[in-house]
Amino acid sequence: MPDVLSFPAIFGLCYLAFGALVLTVERHWRDLVDSPRVLPRRTIHRLRCAAALCMAAALSAAVHRDGAGFGILLWVLALTAGALAVSATVTWLCRPARGRTR
User: Cβ distance 57 to 82 under 8 Å?
Assistant: First the structure.
């Protein structure tokens, strides 16, 4: 992977991981997917497995890019940035949902 594209790829994988984890929360599932039905256990398990795979892939890419010492630090920073970005996205997307009555 070219060096220029590796950091956006690491950040994107972290963003996807936290996005999948957000969807495992029942309230966020109802707000974002706009579905009145209950989130199935199988879907929760699949989303959590996908999140773990994305985090592992991001760690692997970070260590491959910069070695173990700095790669792990880069991965932790990308996890933090991904979590902040997902929380901002969920807040932005769910704000109109607060006004709706169910």
Answer: no
